[in-house]
Every structure is written in C-alpha cells, then in structure tokens.
Amino acid sequence: MQAYSALAGSYEYLQRDYDYEKWSHYLIKNLTALPNLKGVDVGAGTGIITRALKNAGFDVCGTDVSVEMLNTAISLSDGIPFYLQSADKFSGFKGL
Description:
It is built from 5 helices and 3 strands; from the N terminus they run H-H-H-E-H-E-H-E. It is an alpha/beta fold and 96 residues long. Strand 2, helix 5 (67-76) and strand 3 form a beta-alpha-beta unit. Helix 3 packs across helix 4 (48-55). It is globular, with a radius of gyration of 13 Å. The model has no long low-confidence stretch (mean pLDDT 83).
C-alpha cells in the first residue's frame, strides 16, 4: 500500500476526526468477554487501536504491510511488537 507510506507521519493527525476512542471502547467492551486477552491487530497502521488494546490489558501485537506505518506505530508504542505482514497473507502467530 504505497499510498499509506507517504501518509505515515501525518496519518493520525489526518484521521483526528475519526472517533478511534469510541471504536476502541466498543472493541474493548466486546473483547473482554472472551476468555483469552491475546490477539493481533491485522492492518494496524500507526497502531492507534493496538495501543488502546494494550492499555486495556490485552497482550497484543500489530501487523501492517507498510514499513512507514509500522515505523510510526513503533515510535508511538511503548514496546508493543509490530510485524511487517500483509493482511491478505496473514496466517497467524504460534502461541497466540
């Protein structure tokens, strides 16, 4: 996704009108009912949702196809692992 590569540094600023906080609360509310708080944010982009899940106590990592988006995610995330992987080729991770 070359289009996202150019936007990586400004993505969160450009998306400020999108209610990620509301979406995060919805996900957290519904996911906490599951028995396992481990997961992968496929197509994590800059890691907005990934960070919210981590802050809510989930053992989470993120994947994305854009190196630039992942670099931004890594720089904004305190120790959350991110992996370069295409969503259409996602096959999971052992141990999750």
